[in-house]
């Protein structure tokens, strides 16, 4: 009979809700997560309610910037072509001078 009462006490203790540190920590974490989720939902609602159209001032500024970038790109291409042309001319002049120097050396050796 003593064994039955001991088993009964163990069963009663197991059925009682226990407030362990793990359960309280989990519940505080859960409430923190839920508060954060509510804040994020509010932010999403605010973002979704904002107009999708860009203000005209910003659109004009963006268009001006794009135009300026296109102009700079055109200038860069023109500069690149000019540099390539000057490089070709420089190589031609260098080859011409080398040729002249070789002719001059040949004449010098013959005299």
TrEMBL record:
Residues 16-27 have a biased composition (Polar residues). Residues 1-27 are annotated as: Disordered. Residues 1-15 have a biased composition (Basic and acidic residues). InterPro entries: PI/PC_transfer. This is Uncharacterized protein.
């Amino acid at each position: 009979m003593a064994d039955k009462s001991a088993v009964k006490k163990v069963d009663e203790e197991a059925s009682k809700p226990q407030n362990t540190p793990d359960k309280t920590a989990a519940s505080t974490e859960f409430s923190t997560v839920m508060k954060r989720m509510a804040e994020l939902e509010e932010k999403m609602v605010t973002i979704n309610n904002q107009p999708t159209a860009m203000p005209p001032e910003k659109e004009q500024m963006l268009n001006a910037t794009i135009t300026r970038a296109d102009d700079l790109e055109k200038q860069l291409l023109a500069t690149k072509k000019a540099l390539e042309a000057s490089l070709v001319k420089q190589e031609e002049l260098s080859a011409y001078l080398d040729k002249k120097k070789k002719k001059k050396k040949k004449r010098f050796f013959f005299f």
